[in-house]
Please model this.
Amino acid sequence: MNPRDYLADANVQAFLRMTRFCEGTADDDGYRRMVGGGEFDSFADHPRKLIAITRYGIKSSAAGAFQFLEKTWDEMAALYKLPDFSPESQDLAAIGLIHRRGALEDVLAGRIESAIKKCNKEWASFHGSPYGQRTVALSRMLQEYRKWGGTGVAAPIVESKPTWEAPVTPFVAAALPALVQAIPELIRSFGKGEVSERNARAAETVMQVVQAATNTQNAQAAVEAVQNDPAAREAARAALQADHWFDVTEAGGGGIEGARAFSKNAIAKGDEFWRMGVFWITLALLPLLYGTVYLVLVGPPEAFSGELRAAIASSVVTGVLGGVIGFWLGLKFSAPKADAIALGR
Model:
């Protein structure tokens, strides 16, 4: 097999682009990238640097657009007589790896899901990879493949929140604060852009949504687009809104007012009011209200003193009835103090 015979194939090119996207090397500098985010200077040879990956407790020599390990590169370079580590040589070696995994015919025929399954032991970022590292959702991979002209895949349904299995990359960590500044609604999810283990996966996913919406290849380009292009910014905001990222917050900002605002927004987006939890909570509280009022007003006189009746009525009004009216009508409702009722003031 000569990889040069397949380099110009549209499906092969789209598959290579998809692979670079998954490996975090889709930008122009991706062919120079080493694991961990550094870049090497010369394409004369694989950089052959062993870099510690503290997250996984390992050291790796992965480099280039397809993150070739030094040993893997030497095998491909010898097999296909590759003279250097140039972008073209890297592409040819990647085709060689696809062929070695038995997936090249699948790629040529457009059987991309099958090819991904066969190659997910070669590239740890692929959906279904067994290595416990960051993986990209299958639907997102197919979307990227189609974006670059790949055929044989029906339009995928993009998952709202793809699963990621590793902490945020250095590129996303650096870009997130600027993205939050450009799209302030994200403050609800990420504060001012601080990235921790708790929200690292969400940060990765948000950045991928923005990249897809702005048609950019990496986090830096996506942030620059939303900062400088109003149309790109609105496209990103719309994509995040559709993906419900602006809903990741306390209901409307807190309290009855916030809960009411949250429910109004839900109804405005087409959610039926009777499907909302607050509707059923209201129904559950009303029997308590009616039952209490009945006991206080109709119960035997000797069962409740005047002061106790006033206290019960006050609690019911300010609690159940006040909360229900406050939520549904937006009114502040309070009852006179119990001692005032008892004394007839």
Q: What stands out?
A: Residues 173 and 195 are 6 Å apart (CA to CA). The longest strand covers residues 51-53.
